[in-house]
Amino acid sequence: MAGEISADGYSARLEDGRVVFRNERGRVLKKVPPPLVGHAGLPRLVALADGVAAHRRECRAEAERLVREAVAVPADVLEVLAEDAAWKDALAQAGVVPAAPGGRDPEDDDELLARRYRHPALPDWVRILLTTADAARHRDRLMAHRGWELVDTRPTGLPGPGSMPFPESALAEHPARTDEVLHYLERLEQVTSAWRVFTKREVDALLKEIAGAAPALLRCFLDGVADRCLRHGGERADAAAWFGRARTAERTAGEDVDQEWLDARYAAMDAAGALGDTALRERIKQVTGRNAAPEAARRTLALLAERTVREGVRRPRLAADITRIARAAGLDPDRELARLAARLLPARDLGSDAAREFWTAVLAAPAWDLVLADLPRLAHEVVAAGPQAGMLRPDPTLTYLERTGALALLTGPAGADGAAPGRAADWLRRLVDLADRSYRSGNIPGLHRLAELLAPRIAADGVPVDLPWTSRWERNQRGLGTVRLNVLDLLLAAGAPVVDPPPQLGNPYLHHLAVAPRPELRAVTADPRFAREIRALLWAEFELTNGGDASNLWYQPHDPKGWAQVPALVDTDLGRHTLAQWCDEELAELPVLDLDELALMLARFMHIGAAAALLADPDRAERLAAVDVAGLLLAAVAETAPGHGLDRAGAELLLRGVEARSVFRDGVTGPVRQRIGRLLEIEEDGVGTEFARLVQIAANCRNGLAHLLPLLTPEAAPRTDPAADTGTGTGTGTAGSPADAPDRPALVPARVRLGRLLHATAADAALWDGDLDHPSAIVPGASAAFPYLVVDPQSELLRGDTVTGTRLREYADLPFVAEQGTGRWRTVTVACPVRRPSPPVGHVYRTALSTAVVLHSGSYGCAMLEYAPSGTFPEDGPLAAAGGTVEGRYDLVARADSRWLHAYLGLLAERGPLPARPEAVEELARRLVLTADEAGALLAVRRYNRNEPTVAEKEIAARIGHDALREIRDRLRPADPERLWTHGPDLDRAVDWWHERFGAPPVDTELLAQAGREIRFPKGDWAPAGPGPAVDPGPDGLRRRRRRIDTLLAAALAPATSPDCAPAPYASPYAMAWLAYRTPAGHPLRPALGEAALRTAAAARRAGSAAWRVCSADRRSAMGEPPSPLPLADLTGVEVVDDPALWQWHVLVRPDRLGGADDPALDALDDYYDRLQPSQALPSGTGLPALTDLRILLSGDLDTLGRHLAADADRTPGWEQDPRRSAPEAVAACADALGLSADAAALYLMLLALPDPTDRLVRQWTGWSPTVLKAAQQQVREAGLVVEARRSRAGRSLFLPGPWLELKVPRLPIEAAKAALLPAAPTRASGAHGVLVPSRPLPALFADAWQAARSEQGATSRP
Q1: Fewer CB near the terminus (10 Å): N or C of the chain?
Q2: Domain ranges in the chain?
Q3: Which range is least confidently modeled, 723-732, 1044-1053, 1224-1233?
Q4: Where is this region: Disordered (predicted)?
Q5: Cβ contacts of residue 271 below 8 Å, gap of 6+?
Q6: Which pairing describes strands 483-484 and 513-514: parallel, antiparallel, or unpaired?
Q7: Beta bridge partners of 1294
Q8: What strand order describes the sheet that includes 851-857?
Q9: What is the pLDDT confidence band of residue 340, given thresholds at 50, 70 and 90?
Q10: Could you count the other beta carbons within 10 Å of the beta carbon of residue 846?
């Protein structure tokens, strides 16, 4: 029984540390009864329960620490602790065993004291806390705040944790702010549910509040939250983030920290796995900086070494960091590097970039000699450890093995100084295992090189190598399961013994056989053991009897869906011989095959796909051409489907009129039966299922023969395909090297062949009479030419990789590219009349103006290739006579001259792929004001999938149009193709065309690039024009270029008559202020900018009571419904419009009703905008939040700035940020008042007034040398006007005293005192997308800043 509250018969009391609710009959309730809701004592009761739960967790954590550290706990101490039930349970669960009592030093401050407390509301409970003597009084203060009274203290003799824990540490550090510490501590316990749940967002919100209200407490609270998070099972990543922020707050405040304590903090966080790389990097910067203590550097060096040994080499530039820290510590860098390397050897990882960088540096450094001296048996240890991750890369693996001596052991003779027999074979086997786990198919250079080095030793040892053989049926294998025939061939060539292969080499997929760089596999195919199994594997693959994923029935005699390229194993002497033998045996069966058997045989030929080109032979082609498909159809019909009266003429008619379609499970589609019925002039019901199946199979066989015959009877021209002759064969199977591959005749691609046939048919075929069933001619094999245009020549030309040659060669031979004349080509999509099937593939229809062939036939339409010799196409399409209507058309126009293309292809074959030019992407992005991805899209850069356009490519095509994309790529192609290899794309011509088409940038490229870095548009959506009472502020002339830097600056500079001018006055003030601040006096833009500013200010005054839309809130956001803005409507000058059509709220203001830039309504709008998620906020204006622009307009600064800029011609050219030029009176007054030189006074004024007085910019503005700047900084520092510190992203070392605001990119951090001089609220979301710039003229800004400083100094000096 414990503390209790009650009301109306209901009660709440603490039972076993939990709040239990009961009704008047004593039954336990599951939730708070209504009479107790809002009871004044309920929060106190809940806090007590939370405190009990937290105390139990603390006891368990401390008991576990005692066991983990093997602390001897005397029996009398256990008796004392057991008086607390929480301690009694914790000690029992942890298994603490009592020890004999020992001597105790009562004066030891590190000894833990057991302090007993009681609570008035819990008279039967006692709480015992362990604390040190120095923390005892702070713990008493904390417990008293919670209502617990101290009873007594007893010594325990137990060792303390070493440092004062949180929250006692916070009370000790800030004795004058005890009430604030206790207040925020109580809030923190509420947020974390008494340290039980650490929700980062909620904790960060409280820490942000502390940073704003009590920044001096921030560091200790961040440290405390990090410790508590780790102690109570929170996320280590969250603890690491809070620890890193604590160190940032420490540096920002310029605290003088005990370095030994700080290093202990780093060590503790690292041991807990909560030390982030960023925090460690900052610590390394500190200990290697000027005036750093060598002892701190030594401790950091030890921490970094322990971290590396524990986690491996994960840190980039590790060797350089070790060297820097060692020098700062006064140690020998080589010795320290050698000491760390010795602890890491043998290396466990050579694959990561960081590991390769580290070991490359170590192996080349003088430290390596020290390593070898310390580890005399290193070579034997490396050999015994075996291959490690990353050793498949030749660099630095070979260097590592050579420098360690392991390679000499593995490749040298066996003996006392060499590796044991069989060790080299074991190494190679394990290397192959590593390669199989790497998910890299094909040739792995490091593996092949190591195999070359190990092969002679393996041959000398005579121990057979048992390489892994993988099967396509093995589902549990790791990696791709590649069979390394290249390694096997190398071993056999060196005379090394190899274990016999399994049947069919284990039945792997052919594309999982790695052969490069030994594509002919001469040694493997010469070995009878392997030749036998290779022949068996290939034969089963050709016959489709190897149990693969597809059977013979899955392939169709007409569907060329087989191998897209010749597998590497097939393209060997043995593979070609086996293929020819298989083909001859297949063709020998032709005389005895029936129709179904012919279909199966042709399907097997379709399966081998591109390999059929290896069978080119006139005799084979003649034997296939002699196949009488019509006769086989008649025989099959007579045997299985008699009664149709089909004769020879009818069979030929059906073979010409029925389109090839796949047949599965004897099924034939309805349109086929309809066509058969029309051709034979019988009812559809009279067409039997079996008869229709036989007709369909025969049509498929006729189509398959038409596809196969050209492969066996190619043209006699020699092959010149540079992509296929590179000899870079990977495991996916490409051809061998030119020296080894036999000469083959060139194949005529189906699209080229079809185009030539259509061209000839246009002159010879009879005119079509309008009957779809009776075409002018029939072209077999037309389905292989669909789709007709499969290559984008412009992107291929700019890409110029190993695939380009094959694709562009076919494109260059297409008739509309190769022919020069009046004829025109196009592809059309034609819809057929209702209830009439579309014509079959291959049917040719010749009209008076054009000739068209069907490429693809659907249910009610078809795709056709059409040729008009005179250049004029029929107005209604090629099938208008039969009622067909054209639904789509695409003109086939050559994007490059045929001679240019052939010259390009010749250079590609001679010089290889185009060199990568990342600098061209950067240059094009800079000159066209594009992102790097957008510029890469124009240059056809596709990093991942070359066949699919990138997201950036799709976006820029949608923005500028596909025609414009083609035009600029035409301009990027130089007149001389050789320049693509020597100079790259023609950027000048492309840029000139872009500027002519879309307009030149409003400012020079350097200023535009700076704007791109300093102004970032929000990532969410933009509020477009649409329903709503506000005027769309975007310029009409740039509808497709919204939310772009050039649009923003163009709107700020455009005259009133320009379409770029923004109609809404609040769309450009921030951009105008930015331009004024980033351009010096005398810049040609400033007069026009002044006119635009004056015009905008006047337009704002003329707007009267017009409503301006500030932003919209999207109620359909993925982040949920945003907070309602309806309460804002109660503010003067603010309106909220609900737009149900768009599911948005529109927030509007009427500027004439606001009281100026400091109106509270603007702060309320900022508060609301801060609460919106990025996907919920839809800024208006130019895509940036409009509140900063509104403040500039309402302050009157824009009018003043406009008048200042309009008079710019009368000023001396130069940067106005230099007060000696723009405000000499203020400089003189400052120098006289503070006793400074003119340079020092100017520097002090810049620090007072400007938001970004970095050392680099100050030198740019003033023209000072580093020596002059240092002298001025010394004077200001000695005058006591500033503080010196090192702050992240500050770019300077001198700062005004007072709070410091850490802002995110693109803004620079800034002193809080300067916020009053700037129009944008620095910490608000509405100002987070652009750098902070002043809106008033700089002379006035300097004068105001100096006056404010004098006033503050005077107030401080008065008694």
Answers
A1: C
A2: 1-100+108-140+148-158, 163-274, 276-376, 550-710, 750-895, 915-998, 1017-1198, 1216-1357
A3: 723-732
A4: 716-745, 1018-1038
A5: none
A6: parallel
A7: 1284
A8: 777-778, 843-846, 851-857, 861-868, 824-831, 885-892
A9: very high
A10: 23
